[in-house]
Prior knowledge:
This protein has two domains: 1-66 and 153-235, Rossmann fold, CATH 3.40.50; 77-151, no CATH class. It is built from ten helices and nine strands. The protein has helices at residues 42-49, 79-82, 88-93, 97-100, 108-120, 136-149, 166-181, 193-199, 216-220, 223-232; strands at 4-13, 16-26, 31-36, 57-62, 71-74, 154-158, 185-189, 202-206, 211-215. Helix 5 crosses helix 6. Mean pLDDT is 90; it is low at 231-235.
Amino acid sequence: xxxxxxxxxxxxxxxxxxxxxxxxxxxxxxxxxxxxxxxxxxxxxxxxxxxxxxxxxxxxxxxxxxxxxxxxxxxxxxxxxxxxxxxxxxxxxxxxxxxxxxxxxxxxxxxxxxxxxxxxxxxxxxxxxxxxxxxxxxxxxxxxxxxxxxxxxxxxxxxxxxxxxxxxxxxxxxxxxxxxxxxxxxxxxxxxxxxxxxxxxxxxxxxxxxxxxxxxxxxxxxxxxxxxxxxxxxx
Length: 235
C-alpha cells in the first residue's frame, strides 16, 4: 500500500487554483523529486502533504501505518531560523516533540534517538555548539538529523541545498541518498534538475498549467523533461 496517495487533488492559493486533478502515489523506498516552475504550486503541495492546507477537491490519503505526525520535514530556511540561539543537541531532539506528547521531558529513548541521528549525520562533536554559529552545511545536517528524529518512514525536504556551495551540496545529496537506501522514503522539492536525474526514482514535474508524474525513466523520455532541460524552467 502507498505511503501517500493523492487522487484528483485540487489546491488553491489566495483563492486561485494552482493544482488541478493531480494524482500520484509514493511507495515505501521511493525517492520522489518534485520539480517545476515558480508559481506552479510546489509550496502549496508541500503544505497539503503536511496537512497544513485542505484540498479544494480530491484527497490525500496516508497508508502503510504512516501517521501525519510521523513525516520528517526539513523546510526552506529563513534568515531568522539561521540565527536560532539554541544548541545543536536542543535543535535535533526537538524533532521528537510530536512523539513526546504532553510529557514535560524527553524520555531516555528519545535522547538516544537524537544521539543516534547526530552520529548518523556526523555532527556529534557539534552537539554543544550554538546552532547560529554553524556554517550553512552544518546547519542543514542538524536540521536533517532533527527531521530523522520525527520519522522512520518518510522525509519531506524543501530545497535542502539552497544557498550551499557545490562541495557541501554534493555531500548533502549523498547523505540524503544513503538515508533513502537505508529504507527511508524521500520526497524532495528541488530546482536542481541534475539532482533529480542522479538520485530520483520518480519525478513529479509541475508547470503553471500541467503536471507530469512517473518513474525517472518515464520522465527522461517525456516532453516534460525536454521542457525542463531546455532551460525554460528554473524555479
